[in-house]
Amino acid sequence: MKMLFILAWRNLWRNKRRTLITASSVFFAVILALVAESMTKGSHEAMISNMVKLSTGYLQLQDSLYEDEPSVDHAFMYDDTLKQIIRQTSGIAYVVPRFESFMLAATEKSTRPVMLRGVDFEAENRLNDMGHKLLEGTSLEAGDQAVLLADGLAERLKMDVGDSIILVGQGFRGMSAAGIYPVKGIMKISLPRLNDQLIFMPLAATQQLFGAEERLTALLITPEEKEQTDLLAQQLRDQLDPKWFKVLTWKQMMPTLLQSLELDRASGMMIIYMLYLVVGFGILGTVLTMMLERQREFGILLSVGMKRSQLALITFVETVFISMIGVAAGLVGGFPVILYMHHHPIRFGEEMEAMFETYGMEAVMPFALDLQVFSSQAVVVLLITLVIGLYPVLKVFRMNILKAARN
Length: 407
Hints:
- By secondary structure, the protein is of the alpha+beta class.
- It has two domains: 2-51 and 257-406, no CATH class; 56-253, no CATH class.
- The protein has helices at residues 2-12, 16-54, 80-88, 121-128, 151-157, 192-195, 203-210, 229-239, 250-253, 255-293, 295-303, 308-343, 353-357, 371-388, 390-398, 401-406, and strands at residues 59-63, 76-77, 92-106, 111-119, 134-137, 147-150, 164-170, 176-187, 198-202, 215-216, 218-223, 245-249, 346-347, 364-365.
- Helix 10 (255-293) packs parallel to helix 14 (371-388).
- The two termini are 29 Å apart.
């Protein structure tokens, strides 16, 4: 058996051109597949990250009735018992408390429905990097009785830093919620829908406005590993009483986003499958050429006593070796390409910004630097070449020895 492997390896380098041509087709196939998959995965991760962070979070803890009736009356008490459960649950990186409600915002000349989001600015900044989104003014502090306006809302209400805004709504359990607050800053929110209606206020001031001290409408939970979101959700569900609390993942809260990602993923896979098809036929062509060139050689080997099974194994091992050389070279050559594109993503012009903003993304095409991208594409291309490697095996078993030896 060892001798057969040695013969197969030596046979590769008897015709270096043929070997290098076949290995090169595998090499370029791996690199193209890596780039396509990395680009698809990178854009999806960026879209999920932006949408999730600005809206639902990866995981969200709510009152059991809040999802069906999102009212401040269904805000839950964030007490020591609940905090203890959160602290003792492994896999949680940090939590972001929020108190949200729709209100009516008024100025001297106009009124507009808005979403008021009470936040712990330190925790919110950790999730959304809020400091870098500030266009004018200064950030909120815990004891402030002031607000930050989204850029689009400020433009619609024609407000600037230092102006005052009136907020009117319904508080906890029928109380009146109304107040006048100075605008401390203006922020740019990448999601257009939120940019036209979002107001930030310190969490304590928001709770006081609604008469709901120590209560939250949602507790956003960020897992240490994003892939463990579903597992972490189940751990929390096992510890919390479903009569009072509900734990939801971003997939459950944003099914439309999930469906659009699945559709985009399917269209991206169609392109990759076409690439696989082209590559497969390219490799098959080189294998067919190899069989025609070596037909006389195979006929002579069988004539002098080599078993068909031994010859078939040698041809198969040759294909395996060529595939492994091409895949290894593709991984080595593709890594610096993906690494460079990961740190220097493709940037589009201003005309593309509006389209990207609808998904809450910058006008860039990010690339994912993920081990799974490398392993999956390498395995697929290797499997394709191994399947093609079965052709020489079948050819050897069906070969007419006398006819082959005379060619």
